């Protein structure tokens, strides 16, 4: 330590006064640690060690069955186009905060499953590196485009990442990279895709976590871009990919090759009478020369400058209209170089799902995660598309499941706020939701917690769905007290809460409106700024067509009241021109002329304009949802959640190539007579799920 007596006195006085230490004293204080000490405001050595169970939202074993059309619309000539779904490991698409996901993978029972597969051999991540990053996306409605603003939970992630500038970004990345390092197999590697804004910072961080001796490459991915004249520097035209291994003496790497350039072939190679390119080469063992043929060598060795992979072409088949989508060829090169067939690879900033899609095509197992609901939905469609592609060609593929941390994540947030005190947690939880909903707390009621603008408010439970019996209790109290309107807020709602049931209560004198509580309520800043948006529960309707033991499901209606815009405010602020907005379950185009005349055009003229994807589980009660929980002694036990697993047996969704949906499934045949529950799931163009259960007797 290079502190003199005066330095020590100054530090003691500053600490007593609660003042900040000057940087020069901090550096002196830690001068004996190492020659270069990596420090930034907010750096913490400890990482999150929570282990939350994962909920399985959806399981996709086979992409879907197909049927051969006949003259009869109810064709029984079903063709089995099933691929060969590989048993064992099920791939994971996980929605949520990757810090909690990584911590739960590192410390929870799923770690054992990962270790059984040999551990994570390769991690590729493309974390946000633009300070102005936005999680919004565009929705295409016919010829018009509506902007879907980022959710508050995504805005929170953005603020946490960039709120204090580079220091908060480093804190975010440091903790996650330490968790990734812990999860990486001993012979694994990591590739981090970054740009000029943060490349040198992350090199320092990775040297600190992985060790500078484990640095592999700094790859320059150069790509075509229209060059604009800049006054003070050369135009920026490349991203950086840095790679590290976990162990310098044991890691996977395979040299990659690319075709030789035409000018090189013409200059260095001759053509024989058969049209084959050849050249004379020195034979070092026998002396003299030998003839080698171009088609007998592997190609040009790929070095650290990748100038042969262009960005995703706007009209390419792989394009999924996701802003940060990376080309498949880029991920194919990385996955081929640093993993082998059957290895487990991961991407914890999933985006549009490119890593998982290429891993599946190359016979690797995968885990991929993202915070954004739309990102996860985009990846789900893309990965089902890969399954279909492999299935059609008779190739092997794996099932994948869509997971999240569900109620356990909510419990974690509340425990963190209240130090686990149950009574305090219950009271604080209700107060928190009411504040976010801008409602006032009321006393003297059994089922009602607050009021807002003449309507009463019930706050649904933290851990379980709002049930029909709960609504009946609310109805009875409202009827006795002559209340006519109540909003019921919940994270989840029981499947039996149909529009018909809500209408029956309305006809009896009480109008009940069901609204989803967004995860955003757990961010104090979002609540204080009034940014939390609750939206009405959507409803779908479906019809069953029966013929003996066979049924078809027809999707017949979808109703939503989703809003993200204040129409009046936008109208007042508009000058001439047009704007597409979302208000009360409609997508509207507002147009204002130079004379101030405003017109509104509804773009979602039909209910199906809202639907992006729908899927069916023909026997919803056939498989229980089992989660793994580690007890205090470290023993892993399996527990039924009380829910069932949605097994995605048939689905139809929009893609760039096929924008139209099918609204009737192919026939499904039941092997045995009995009572069955069919679940129909719709994902709308905003990425929000709505489900319905239909009971049938066979």
TrEMBL record:
Keywords: Methyltransferase, S-adenosyl-L-methionine, Transferase. Its EC number is 2.1.1.72. The lineage of its organism: Bacteria, Pseudomonadati, Bacteroidota, Sphingobacteriia, Sphingobacteriales. It is an enzyme of class 2 (transferase). Residues 121-379 form the DNA methylase N-4/N-6 domain. This is site-specific DNA-methyltransferase (adenine-specific). InterPro entries: DNA_methylase_N4/N6 (IPR002941), N4/N6-MTase_EcoPI_Mod-like (IPR002295), SAM-dependent_MTases_sf (IPR029063). It catalyses: a 2'-deoxyadenosine in DNA + S-adenosyl-L-methionine = an N(6)-methyl-2'-deoxyadenosine in DNA + S-adenosyl-L-homocysteine + H(+). The keyword S-adenosyl-L-methionine applies. It comes from Mucilaginibacter panaciglaebae. It comes from the Bacteria. The keyword Transferase applies.
